[in-house]
Predict the 3D structure of the following.
Amino acid sequence: MTGEGWVGRPLRRVEDRRFITGRGQYVDDVLRPRLLHLAFVRSPHAHARVVRLDASAAQSSPGVVTVLTGRDVPSFRPVSLMPFVPGIKAPTRPVLAGDTVHMVGELVAAVIARDPSEARDAAERVVVGYEPLDALPLAPAALKAPALGSDIPSKRVIAHRWNAGDAETAFRAAAHVERLTIDQNRVSAMTMEPRTVLAEYDPGTDLLTVWISIQSPFPFRAELARMLDFPEERIRVTAPDVGGGFGVKAGVYPEDVIVAYAALTLGRAVKWVSTRGEDFQSTTQGRGGACEAEIALAADGTITGLRARIVVPVGARLVASAAVPPGRYGNMMPGAYRVASVDIETNGVLTTTAPTGAYRGAGRPEAMSPSSGWWSRPPAASSSRSCTTGTGSSSPPASWTTRCCGPTTRRPSSSTARPRRAPSIRSGPRGWARQERSRHPRPSSTPPWLRWPRSGCRASTCP
């Protein structure tokens, strides 16, 4: 659509009618003959030994076809990891827990029944005895803790460092050093449609068909085939309408493997629909990292060096995109600024929590948080900063403010004000909003003494 008639022209959406009239089709809307339903038994502990597991009462419950535990399923191949940084050390985690659980919501058993209510009722009759162990929900504390029985010698499973120039010399010669510590909140992806998967195996054609709420059906098919050791060309994956993904519906989960394995074993269609609570406990989460960063500045405000130490919780098991957030956190931290000397170290640490991975930006928002913290500090707050200067003062040199008209609150005169922009070519309310914003430009939130040095001064960016 490069023709002149399409520039700035809004396009009418064509997919909305069936959604607003209730005609969309999600995975849970798919019905198959002789359909079975699956419910999981999950760990209530962040870290514990499984000392007892008795599924006999559930097995004899009404409508139950079978109950699967870790002893009943084979050792599936582990999830393939995106090699975003080299040297990733992935722990071995079974699809259904064995002797130890490592997070709240980890799968312990699967109950398959004729009706979803019968499956849930029977799942509550599975008796599991636990011996609680130490929990490590925070990455900095987990980094210092012993392995706690893991099959790898350290909790640090991702480690990488970026070096450029001579950061040590840059900081030693700096006129001013700004330090910042950031602890980011962990976030959970609450999609409109929870994770759902339906698998059906046809022995006559040797075809496994999977309906799943997924963002990447082709990579999912390849990975599922590899984990099940089943021919990829004998798997058909269908992604109907997907009610939100945000990055967390882009890989293979343990639940997906169990549903597909149950369909292959029983020769019938098997469906699992996650509850909101299950999604909150076990779906890949985001953020949660901690960062200590500092920048070295010359007397004129030029950034001469950047150092950072990043610790990101990857959870109890590594998902395919586990290395993406800590990797992008580090390699994108300089942003749009030219920094001659860089020393950034990133670490991914095992914790007894839900896994983290790619979610809405996949490390980019984390990488921008230090720079937004530095640039948003007003000069008046400089005395409370954790910083050092070559002169022993914590305030920025007065010469820095001359590049951007100084810390004045006087509005620029009409002779120096930037002329208004022409109205936006986009029609409708958004165009008018853009035009109104151009009439009343807001001052930049960047303090004048931390702005990128430039030769002139634009009045529209002054306070």
In short: Residues 383 and 393 are 9 Å apart (CA to CA).
